Amino acid sequence: MLEPLSSEKGWELLCRKAFGSDGCCPPNLTELSELVVGKCGGLPLAIAAIGGLLSRKNKIVSKWRNMLDSLGSKLSSDSHLSDCNRDLSKGYYDLPHHLQSCLLYFGAFPKGCEIRFGKLIRLWIAEGFVQRNNDLPSEHVAEEYLKELINRSLVQVSMRKASGQVGSCIVHDLIYEIIHRKTKGM
After folding, report:
1. pLDDT at 146 over 70
2. Contact at 8 Å (CB) between 102 and 129?
3. Vertex 67 angle, CA 177 and 8, to 5°
4. What is this structure's pTM?
5. Which residue, of 90, 121, 149, is where some domain finishes?
6. What are the φ/ψ torsions at residue 167 (nearest 5 degrees)?
Protein backbone atom coordinates (compact mmCIF):
# COMPACT_ATOMS: atom_id res chain seq x y z
CA MET A 1 0.00 0.00 0.00
CA LEU A 2 1.37 3.39 -0.98
CA GLU A 3 1.20 5.99 1.74
CA PRO A 4 0.54 9.65 0.99
CA LEU A 5 3.53 11.95 1.25
CA SER A 6 4.17 13.53 4.62
CA SER A 7 3.59 17.28 4.88
CA GLU A 8 7.34 17.85 4.74
CA LYS A 9 7.87 15.71 1.62
CA GLY A 10 4.79 17.24 -0.01
CA TRP A 11 6.18 20.71 0.75
CA GLU A 12 9.53 19.81 -0.80
CA LEU A 13 7.87 18.47 -3.94
CA LEU A 14 5.62 21.50 -4.33
CA CYS A 15 8.52 23.92 -3.85
CA ARG A 16 10.65 22.08 -6.43
CA LYS A 17 7.82 22.12 -8.97
CA ALA A 18 6.51 25.63 -8.31
CA PHE A 19 9.74 27.53 -7.62
CA GLY A 20 12.34 25.66 -9.64
CA SER A 21 15.46 23.77 -8.71
CA ASP A 22 16.32 25.92 -5.69
CA GLY A 23 12.84 25.21 -4.28
CA CYS A 24 12.77 28.42 -2.28
CA CYS A 25 9.24 29.58 -1.48
CA PRO A 26 8.81 33.36 -1.17
CA PRO A 27 7.57 34.31 2.32
CA ASN A 28 4.41 35.93 0.92
CA LEU A 29 3.37 32.60 -0.66
CA THR A 30 4.19 30.29 2.25
CA GLU A 31 0.67 30.16 3.67
CA LEU A 32 -0.95 29.53 0.28
CA SER A 33 1.69 26.93 -0.60
CA GLU A 34 0.90 25.09 2.64
CA LEU A 35 -2.81 25.18 1.72
CA VAL A 36 -2.01 23.65 -1.68
CA VAL A 37 -0.05 20.82 -0.06
CA GLY A 38 -2.94 20.23 2.37
CA LYS A 39 -5.52 20.31 -0.42
CA CYS A 40 -3.57 17.62 -2.29
CA GLY A 41 -3.74 15.30 0.71
CA GLY A 42 -0.26 13.90 0.14
CA LEU A 43 -0.96 12.74 -3.43
CA PRO A 44 2.37 13.17 -5.29
CA LEU A 45 0.70 13.33 -8.70
CA ALA A 46 -1.61 16.12 -7.58
CA ILE A 47 1.18 18.08 -5.85
CA ALA A 48 3.44 17.83 -8.90
CA ALA A 49 0.65 18.81 -11.32
CA ILE A 50 -0.49 21.80 -9.28
CA GLY A 51 3.10 22.84 -8.57
CA GLY A 52 3.75 22.81 -12.32
CA LEU A 53 0.67 24.93 -12.93
CA LEU A 54 1.71 27.40 -10.22
CA SER A 55 5.20 27.65 -11.71
CA ARG A 56 3.63 29.41 -14.71
CA LYS A 57 1.77 31.93 -12.52
CA ASN A 58 3.16 35.24 -11.32
CA LYS A 59 4.35 34.95 -7.74
CA ILE A 60 1.54 37.23 -6.55
CA VAL A 61 -0.68 36.25 -3.61
CA SER A 62 -3.94 37.27 -5.34
CA LYS A 63 -3.13 35.19 -8.46
CA TRP A 64 -2.30 32.15 -6.33
CA ARG A 65 -5.40 32.63 -4.18
CA ASN A 66 -7.62 32.76 -7.30
CA MET A 67 -5.97 29.60 -8.63
CA LEU A 68 -6.43 27.80 -5.32
CA ASP A 69 -10.09 28.88 -5.05
CA SER A 70 -10.87 27.64 -8.57
CA LEU A 71 -8.85 24.44 -8.37
CA GLY A 72 -11.89 22.16 -8.70
CA SER A 73 -13.05 23.73 -11.96
CA LYS A 74 -9.48 23.86 -13.28
CA LEU A 75 -9.14 20.07 -12.93
CA SER A 76 -11.22 19.60 -16.04
CA SER A 77 -10.48 22.81 -17.95
CA ASP A 78 -6.71 23.37 -17.54
CA SER A 79 -4.59 21.26 -19.88
CA HIS A 80 -1.79 20.99 -17.29
CA LEU A 81 -4.18 19.48 -14.72
CA SER A 82 -6.16 17.35 -17.16
CA ASP A 83 -3.53 14.58 -16.97
CA CYS A 84 -3.77 14.66 -13.18
CA ASN A 85 -7.57 14.54 -13.42
CA ARG A 86 -7.41 11.63 -15.88
CA ASP A 87 -5.00 9.69 -13.67
CA LEU A 88 -7.03 10.32 -10.52
CA SER A 89 -10.21 9.34 -12.38
CA LYS A 90 -8.57 6.05 -13.36
CA GLY A 91 -8.63 5.14 -9.69
CA TYR A 92 -12.41 5.40 -9.82
CA TYR A 93 -12.87 3.58 -13.14
CA ASP A 94 -10.61 0.72 -12.03
CA LEU A 95 -12.93 -0.03 -9.11
CA PRO A 96 -15.50 -2.84 -9.18
CA HIS A 97 -19.05 -1.45 -9.47
CA HIS A 98 -19.92 -1.99 -5.79
CA LEU A 99 -16.85 0.02 -4.70
CA GLN A 100 -17.65 2.80 -7.20
CA SER A 101 -20.99 3.26 -5.45
CA CYS A 102 -19.30 3.35 -2.05
CA LEU A 103 -16.77 5.94 -3.20
CA LEU A 104 -19.43 8.11 -4.82
CA TYR A 105 -21.32 8.08 -1.51
CA PHE A 106 -18.63 10.38 -0.08
CA GLY A 107 -20.18 13.07 -2.30
CA ALA A 108 -23.22 13.10 0.01
CA PHE A 109 -21.04 14.71 2.67
CA PRO A 110 -19.54 18.21 2.60
CA LYS A 111 -16.02 18.62 1.24
CA GLY A 112 -13.42 18.01 3.94
CA CYS A 113 -15.89 16.23 6.22
CA GLU A 114 -14.45 13.50 8.43
CA ILE A 115 -16.86 10.58 8.46
CA ARG A 116 -17.03 8.17 11.37
CA PHE A 117 -16.31 4.59 10.34
CA GLY A 118 -19.37 3.05 12.02
CA LYS A 119 -21.75 5.60 10.56
CA LEU A 120 -20.33 5.16 7.07
CA ILE A 121 -20.62 1.38 6.95
CA ARG A 122 -24.16 1.50 8.39
CA LEU A 123 -25.13 3.99 5.67
CA TRP A 124 -23.58 1.81 2.96
CA ILE A 125 -25.52 -1.20 4.26
CA ALA A 126 -28.78 0.80 4.44
CA GLU A 127 -28.28 2.05 0.87
CA GLY A 128 -27.80 -1.53 -0.36
CA PHE A 129 -24.18 -1.04 -1.49
CA VAL A 130 -22.89 -4.00 0.53
CA GLN A 131 -23.23 -7.31 -1.27
CA ARG A 132 -24.56 -10.16 0.84
CA ASN A 133 -22.11 -12.84 1.84
CA ASN A 134 -23.56 -15.82 3.70
CA ASP A 135 -20.30 -16.43 5.55
CA LEU A 136 -19.70 -12.89 6.82
CA PRO A 137 -21.83 -10.24 8.51
CA SER A 138 -22.61 -7.17 6.39
CA GLU A 139 -20.56 -4.96 8.72
CA HIS A 140 -17.45 -7.05 8.05
CA VAL A 141 -18.01 -6.93 4.28
CA ALA A 142 -18.45 -3.13 4.43
CA GLU A 143 -15.26 -2.84 6.47
CA GLU A 144 -13.42 -4.76 3.74
CA TYR A 145 -14.84 -2.35 1.15
CA LEU A 146 -13.48 0.61 3.12
CA LYS A 147 -10.09 -1.07 3.52
CA GLU A 148 -9.93 -1.57 -0.24
CA LEU A 149 -10.69 2.12 -0.90
CA ILE A 150 -7.99 3.06 1.63
CA ASN A 151 -5.49 0.65 0.07
CA ARG A 152 -6.14 2.25 -3.31
CA SER A 153 -5.43 5.70 -1.75
CA LEU A 154 -8.89 6.96 -2.70
CA VAL A 155 -9.91 7.35 0.95
CA GLN A 156 -7.65 8.56 3.72
CA VAL A 157 -7.77 7.50 7.36
CA SER A 158 -8.15 10.64 9.44
CA MET A 159 -8.27 8.97 12.85
CA ARG A 160 -7.56 5.51 14.21
CA LYS A 161 -8.90 3.98 17.40
CA ALA A 162 -6.50 2.67 20.03
CA SER A 163 -7.16 -0.82 18.64
CA GLY A 164 -5.78 0.28 15.26
CA GLN A 165 -9.21 0.10 13.61
CA VAL A 166 -10.28 3.02 11.42
CA GLY A 167 -12.11 5.59 13.53
CA SER A 168 -12.92 8.09 10.81
CA CYS A 169 -11.98 8.76 7.21
CA ILE A 170 -12.00 11.49 4.60
CA VAL A 171 -11.46 11.79 0.85
CA HIS A 172 -8.76 14.05 -0.56
CA ASP A 173 -10.08 17.35 -1.89
CA LEU A 174 -9.11 16.45 -5.45
CA ILE A 175 -10.82 13.06 -5.23
CA TYR A 176 -13.84 14.87 -3.81
CA GLU A 177 -13.89 17.15 -6.87
CA ILE A 178 -13.94 14.10 -9.14
CA ILE A 179 -16.73 12.52 -7.07
CA HIS A 180 -18.68 15.77 -7.13
CA ARG A 181 -18.43 16.03 -10.94
CA LYS A 182 -19.50 12.39 -11.37
CA THR A 183 -22.51 12.74 -9.04
CA LYS A 184 -23.63 15.98 -10.72
CA GLY A 185 -24.12 14.07 -13.97
CA MET A 186 -26.27 11.38 -12.34
Report:
1. yes
2. yes
3. 80
4. 0.65
5. 90
6. -95, -45
